[in-house]
# Entry
Amino acid sequence: MSLPPDARSSIGVPNVAVIGSGYWGANLVRNFHGLGALRVVCDRDAARLKTFRETYPECPVTTSFEEILADDTIPAVAIATPAEMHEDMVRRALLAGKDVFVEKPLCLSSQAGEQLVALAESRGQILMVGHILWYHPAVLKLKELVDSGELGRLQYIYSNRLSLGKIRREENILWSFAPHDLSVILGLLDEMPDAVQAQGGNYLHERIADVTVSLLSFPSGVKAHIFVSWLHPFKEQKLILVGDRQMAVFNDVEKTDKLLVYPHSIDWKNNIPTPNKAEARVIPVETSEPLRSECSHFLKCIETPIAC
# Structure
């Protein structure tokens, strides 16, 4: 498939093909289009492609991944297909000479992930996994609070990512939801856990967990838990950091005031710990769209790999 001349990017903006335009892929389509980089949408669902053809009439659509791989006018792909398809599609794209953005998880085994990373490095190509929270202004501000010592010594981290749906059949809730929280916790602490435990419950399908709780212990002494579920009566996306000076709460469901710091303290009176509660302080954060920032970063990596 060769793109018509007027469908190619302007000078300095790479051509990107979005592979998979469903629930989340549609957001990638919208953002790459807004950045002037969208040049083709690929999906197996012809009816869905018809909708994109009407929305973006200047952008070609195709049901053939092979055509994308064979088109040398497209240097990069953004993959938003089901997780079980990631490993094969990423490998094929890299071998076809494409830079790759792929939504989390990269694949469904650590061995396969290491092989894909090694393949990209050996070919000098970009392989970027979509961890959108690292482009969220509140998470970036939270990282600043941790690194500056404003929260004091971190002691415990709670992370809840709960909702009623979207229920997947390709991967369990741990693979679907928890990569967000794992990525943020590991980045905030800048260390890997030395012990991990996880347990889950399978209620809708005997082989697919719908609810999981993971416990992490770190060499620094920090403990963390991650609770994820798509069988929850309401939506909750909350990350809580407990430091020995202050506590921080990132609540992504809130429309405003997403990041709060509580200057609570604990006093010891007659060998009894007594909490002193204080009013929360709102931490101002920008209102930029994280996915737009993430897509922009991928484009910059393609243009200047050494900067990534």
